[in-house]
Design goal:
The protein contains two helices and seven strands. The protein has a domain of about 60 residues: SH3 type barrels, CATH 2.30.30. It is flat. A four-stranded antiparallel sheet has the order 4-5-6-7, with no helix packed on it. The protein is an alpha+beta fold.
Length: about 160
């Protein structure tokens, strides 16, 4: 019985509040239609002039994408000299093999991941921390793999 009385009182308050809100909204909209807000008399092309805003763009001395105070140093161009002493020393350049990564497979019993790698157009299945010649698979992820050859590492994305 008490719940019915309380519900009846709450419904009546709700009807009173919605009636008040609707009355206020209808008064504001009728007043807005009757009187203009401001009288603006603009004559087109009167005192019309184009002024250009010019400025000079300057190069930033820092990388805007890095946080902190890292500065970009300008690159110095060094001319090569043709000295015979330098030419006598043989410099061996290392060339990375062509590596394509296709993903990995992980079994229920083993913790290591079995990576599918194509090196110089030959397909290999190697686990993490296994070597293939001088190439070592450090870590295999779902989207990339980290490979180490001659103490230099490289991250290769999945095909």
């Amino acid at each position: 019985m008490i719940k019915k009385i309380v519900n009846g009182i709450l419904v009546s308050f709700l009807l009173l509040i919605t009636a008040g809100v609707l009355k206020k909204c209808s008064n504001k909209s009728s007043n807005a239609l009757e009187a203009p807000i401001a009288n603006v008399n603009i004559k087109p092309y009167e005192n019309f002039s184009v002024s250009k805003d010019t400025f000079k763009l300057e190069l930033l001395n820092r990388n805007p994408f890095k946080t902190g105070r890292s500065y970009i140093t300008p690159v110095k161009i060094v001319k090569k000299s043709n000295s015979s002493a330098f030419n006598s020393v043989a410099v061996k350049k290392f060339k990375w093999p062509i590596i394509e990564y296709y993903g990995f497979v992980k079994g229920n019993n083993s913790k290591d991941r079995l990576a599918l790698i194509k090196i110089n157009n030959r397909l290999y299945r190697k686990r993490e921390n296994q070597t293939l010649g001088d190439l070592k698979i450090k870590k295999a992820y779902s989207d990339s793999i980290i490979v180490i050859v001659n103490n230099s590492s490289k991250t290769i994305a999945r095909k």
